[in-house]
Design goal:
The protein is an alpha+beta fold. The protein contains eight helices and 19 strands. Strands 2-3-7-8-11-16-17-18 form an eight-stranded antiparallel beta sheet. Strand 12 and strand 13 form a beta hairpin. Helix 3 runs antiparallel to helix 7, helix 4 runs parallel beside helix 8 and helix 7 packs across helix 8. The longest helix has 23 residues. The C terminus is likely disordered.
Length: 372
Amino acid sequence: MPYSSKKYRDDAETVAMKSAAMIMHVLVSCVGIGALSACQSNVSLATQSAVATQQFEFSRMVMGAPCRVVFYAPNEESANESARAVFDRLARMEEALSDWMPASETRQLPSAAGVTTTVGADLANALSMSLNYARMTDGAFDPTVGALTKRWRAARSDGRSPDAAELQALRARCGWQQVQFDAATQTYTALVPGLELDFGGIGQGIGTDAALAVLRERGITCALIDLSGDIAVSDPPPGRSGWKIDLDDPWHTQLELANAAVTTSGDRFQHMDLAAEGGTTTRRSHIIDPATGEPLTNRVEVVVVARTGVEADALATALSVMGPERGRALLAKLPSTSARWRYETERNPVVTSPGWPTPALRVHTMPGIATF
């Protein structure tokens, strides 16, 4: 069954959980494995694996979004225990990183400048990785835009955009270089008053990697985590070369992934329509350009394929801001990562980085419709 890399947010509090067992057919072990002789030599092993392993699927709302956990385990009891461990881990992470939960560790950080505080392991890890991607992307990814995202969320509700003076004041409270973080001591200091963190561009990627790590610790090495379209996978299902991931595009693109991740970012499912001068309406993305303090208006969807969920998530945000020219230059330094920009206009409708879709095993599209 293919999974879709489609990113959206839902603030519902409903929880749904299900599990199902499935015996794999021996024939699927031939999919994607070159020569017939190689397929035949694996039939015995695939049959044994299929008999011993069942597929289970669980779902729950996590970080304000639907999360699916799919993996292969020996029995229902161990599967239920492993799923509980995953969702418990993600709940603890949300309590540390959320900018929505008033009691989260992130929301409780000092608002005054120059105050040093020690942070927990999850927040320290998120800060370390976020600041690394901020440096890597020259600030196109920035975890300190919380004051801006909060204001633009309000604009999404009331339709009122900040004026130039308000925007300037908000930008003065942002900037990744205005954070001092010592990973060795796990201490955090904001250098400007009112600085607020927002891990929305990386938190779900961190979550998918953490979920896979929990399963590995429990001996489960064949799994898929889908956190609102941020998808990370470990080893492929028994008898198959990879997990099939559908990209929600006009060409029915399908990737096969193993020990990799894919994230889609854009304004198709998360956007706002705001009144502009002259009575016109401007469509704006949920992604903010840290250089201007304003949401993007370039109508682009970016897909990133990487080795880890955190890299795919952070770079999908950054590459949306950077655009193809700067983005391709960055990805030339990251041979295990690739991206595709798809515009909703006639200008450069599709642009890919060299090696797209590395590190996917293969890519399938409907014949005669699109090539990359």
